[in-house]
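Q: Joint fold for the lines below.
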Amino acid sequence: MSRPSVKTNPEHVGDFLSSLSSKARSQMFSLAENVAYEEGDVVFRQGDPSRYLYVVKAGRVAIEIHLPSKGSRRIQTVGPGDVFSWSALIKPYTETASARATHPTEVWRIKREILISTCRKDCAFGFELYRALACAISARLMATRLQLLDVFAVP
Amino acid sequence: MTTPVNVPRISASVVLPKPALQQVFENLQESGFSIIGPTLREGMVALDEIRTVEDLPRGLRDQQSPGHYHLRPAEDGQWFGYNLGAHSWKQFLHPPRVTLYSVNKNEGHWTLQRPEKVAPRYAFVGVRACDLQAVFIQDRVFLGEEYRDPYYGRRREQIFILAVNCSTASSSCFCTSMKTGPRVSTGYDLVLTELSDAFLLEVGSEAGSEMLRSTGWQSATAFDLGRATQVLQQAERQITREMNTVDLPQLLYRNLEHPRWSKVAARCLSCANCTMVCPTCFCTTVEDSSDLRGTSAERVRVWDSCFVLDFSHVHGGNLRPTVRARYRQWLTHKLGSWIDQFGTSGCVGCGRCITWCPVGIDITEELKAIRATGER
Amino acid sequence: MTTTLPNPEIVARPDPMLPNAAVIRGIQPEAYGISTFSLAFQEPPVAHAYHFQPGQFNMLYVPGFGEVAISLSSDPASPELMGHTVRYAGVVTRAMGRLKPGDIIGVRGPYGSFWPLHLAVGKDVLIVSGGIGLAPLRPLILSIIRDRSTYGRVMLLYGARTPADLLYTGEFEAWERAGIEVHVTVDRADENWSGQVGVVPMLFYRIRVDHTKTVVMTCGPEIMMRFAIYEALARRVPKDAIFISMERNMKCAVGFCGHCQFGPTFICRQGPVLKYSAIEPFFGKEDF
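A: Joint structure:
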């Protein structure tokens, strides 16, 4: 059920892309490479060095955390327009969770070094990028808080 | 020679010697009314079924203050020289316990039975202006356009009201602020003002007129009317408590987080006395019971109070778990949201909640405190 | 101050507290601890006179245990069979859980206000729901499907705690085929779940909202509704285009017992469906 719609324009949905100005968006696309994954492909694993900032173009990626003796727990899924792996910009630049494509998926990914040097040279772009990131991380944090509150739990 | 007139016309003012009130009682009883009126019970002027004027608590005066009620004899022997006790007329129109229906199961077959009780015909004797307004307020609650409460409705449509204009005021009274008294102005069959040597009665309806038959009534003179006005003015002068009702309900809606709520919550015992004695509080709950075999069950509607913890129980807990939340609900409803719901304040200024609060919380003080430092 | 959604005619009763006998025609398990009871009035004249609007509720009575307010979750076009999706949570619902098809339950209703579909003509309808909150929205969805071309895009955002707690999952495909965009998520996945994971408000990020022509209708835990409203407002949906369904303790359902009051609003009469702009000053006030 609930297959990701192929018709969704990633620029209009999601927690990241639509927060960028169109100029910053085009700049991002010019810096990014397109990568495709098959259903079940691992994008990166928890603990890997975080090399890229990712934005989903189409499909769906599951964020999973591995618990010893309990296996991998899917804690969030992201879709078109959503950003993930901002660990690429935050020390110690290590993935805090694994990412796996649950459907045929396409992403934009930008190398960490390229992104940071562009931000340094072009402050206006840097401001746009970090502002959009703040929006996305804020939304993700609020969602996590709601998950923690377990609002559906039977008392 | 003029035709003898046995009963006065509607809106006439007449005077009676005080003992003639007994004839009014007898006329009421002959017409099938049970008389409910003030009578002395356990040191308080209670409301109960009475038979003769001897049951009235004549010659008593009450002293009231936050958390205190005390009766003492009055030198002038006035029949109605006291104010209000804990009872209000709501227990007779909106009874504390009403059996709604019972269900009997017979071989998987249900039958629903309603109690075959004929609604009593009550004559309320001694209704004060504030309490009469309280009845009208409950009329708006229970006799609306969409739903009517038949238990209230059947009793209400039969009652006879012999109201009494107050000649004194207790320190808890603030009817003048709420514009509900001290004068009874409408909705009565008869209204009585006690003069030093007689009763002045104004006739409000045909039923009221009929009950004056054979009482030896005489038309009131201008002098009598003047004395009656003085009685009311005397009562009004004795009112010391006041409530500023400007900007309600908005003042309360704006101040739901006012620090005063925590202050009053520290004193409030959540005992629900105020809601029991308030003449307009109407909340109820339903209790279910069944016999041991599970073949018959009954539903009984009983008075409830928003101060009871479970009042706001939903799956997962109680939505007003603190006394602060529950006191805030009571006061903002009584003085505030009631206006949006029913078009009038829920408070008539009777002062009972002040007198009968065991810790002496004064609703007028609470509102004053919120108004003084609240958000404008 | 309070919303004035119009009410349909209520079957006139001499005493609003008296129920009618209804037979349990079927009990359909929906999710863990939740079943849908399908009821039919025993007396034909009562059954014929009964009809309801999406969002309304009945008071269900189990002799000896009490009454409970349960939203209707069945198709309003077939009111002779009244569906109620019930979670076994309290004394009365657990007593219902011990009944079987053929047993009798007391029913009175319908009560309350209803989802204002008449305000969504030609507009996009965004339905946001969580857990058992989908139950009072199901009649709305069925009504929309019956008249699909009257509305623009229709999107359902729905989630529950775990996949086992999702309601009506067997109908989602039919709803999609009928032109409803169905987005489903769970707070916690199990090993077999291949769908989305995350809270319901996050589903807003999967859709595009045209604030000039969207009506939002939401029902679920109050905190979920609060965040759903937050997301809708962030996308500039007007406050008077957002409708919520609230729940409070109910003893009478006719505005006499006083239990369901929320500020000046009687949830049983002006609600349970309320316009957000009408109750905004009170919504979210702690312990109110």
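Q: Anything notable?
A: Residues 23 and 72 of chain A are 39 Å apart (CA to CA). Chain A has a mean pLDDT of 92.
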